[in-house]
Every structure is written in structure tokens, then in C-alpha cells.
Write the C-alpha cells for this entry.
Amino acid sequence: MQLEEQIFSLIFSLLYGIFVMYIYDYLNVNKMAKKYKILNIIFFCINITLIYFLLCKRINNGSIHVYFILAFIVGIIIYKNFIK
């Protein structure tokens, strides 16, 4: 994988983590009834994961490295601590 692809994938993973937390907060999953909450969380996780892998396939031919996942987690932490 080229260096440009890796940098773009890291930035994409970081921004995708921020985006996922924004969508999660926008949906207000915590205010739903319990039986709908579990289903919505399951469908939300499946959809977000599929979208992430489809976009990674588009960016860098589907190559996933540990540091992309770490960048995603850092994006979630940044959203929770600084943006929210």
C-alpha cells in the first residue's frame, strides 16, 4: 500500500469515528424503548461496519490494518471528549 493511501485511510478512519458518534448521538438510542433499543443498536452496528468496509475497499482495496481501527477509536474519543 502506498504512503498516500495509508495517510488517507488513517484520516478517513479518524473522521469516520467522529461521524459514527455524531450519528449515534443524533439517533438518541438511549431514549428508546428497551426492546427497540437492542434491535436499533444491532442494526446500527451492522450498517456502520458494512459502510466502513465498503468505503475502505473503495479507498485502499479493502486493506484493514490495526492502526486504522485505532484511528477509528481515537475519533470516537475525540468526539466524546472535545466535540460533544
In short: The chain has one domain: 3-79.
